[in-house]
Amino acid sequence: MTTLAPTPSRRGRSALPRARGPLSEAVVQALAGSPPAGPFPVAEVTSADPCGDDLAVALHLCYELHYRGFEAVADSWEWDPQLIELRGAMERHFLAALRDRVEGGDDVAGTLDALLVEQVPGSGVTHHLRDAGTWWQLREYVVHRSVYHLKEADPQVWVIPRLRGHVKAALVAVEYDEYGGGRGERLHADLFAGLMEDLGLSADYLHYFDHVPAPIISIVNLMSLFGLHRELRGAMVGQFASVEITSSPSARRMARAVERLGGGPRALDYFTEHIEADAVHEQVMRRDVIDGLLADEPELAPDVVLGVQATELLEARLADHLLAAWGRGETSLLTPLPGLHTPG
Length: 344
Fold this sequence. Notes:
Blueprint: H1 22-32, H2 53-64, H3 81-101, H4 108-115, H5 125-131, H6 135-149, H7 154-157, H8 165-178, H9 188-198, H10 214-228, H11 233-261, H12 265-296, H13 301-327
Helix pairs in contact: 1-2, 2-3, 2-10, 5-11, 6-9, 6-10, 8-12, 9-12, 10-13, 11-12, 11-13
């Protein structure tokens, strides 16, 4: 594949986002000041919508401290005991809701096989963008996805120390591809940044966070939750497998959408890279990672299923949100971006 010129370096940390309720307000105010702070409203967590904007933003704030952090926020907040207590309460509430809303079970093979079955004709977001989507809808979709893809593959790295032997080696091989196979200019996160710039969007890290609603934030929180907890290592593997199994067909549809709508070469490059890479990753994740993990730790089968099903649940929620808004001719973002949304 032709190597395209790398994009310029981008700002490493984002500013603190706006709060969307009492939980996120407490965290924003604390991070904007000097530690120690508190007490945090732990008792209020169970009354919050586990997939709503307030809890999603508050959890994101806690998790982002383990990634790049925020501008003008002390690194010492990463392991602040009071903030960790609040995070734990929010995690338990979020995870309990996910367990409640998925079917569950321990049939890993059947759960993964179901991911390969597509309705004909398809009716998902990438089907819509390929066949009938508009330029502004394509750009909105990329804005949503930027919350994760500007740190693509980072949440899954947390699981590597929790694996061993051939399973660890196989997962690292997949991650090696995600990080460009040793070539900095081919980092998938940087390829996504190039896609954004080709579409006339800012590629600054978390630049659009205040514009995106809870459905996409919850998806990214799910990855961080699974990755940061050793007891959820099976769920993290299931989540990663779900993404890799479904990515190649989706990327193919998105490549066609970009071509149809007149996107530039870097926009197309991101998706064609995933058509090729993720078709291989699917097999590695199923045969080497999941089969190897379950041969070693068969008791993790229900967690692998949880990882797949919870991912599909939240992705379906995002798809419903996008398609409903677009069907009304409205923006899917919390606030329209200048020059981005064209009604009708």
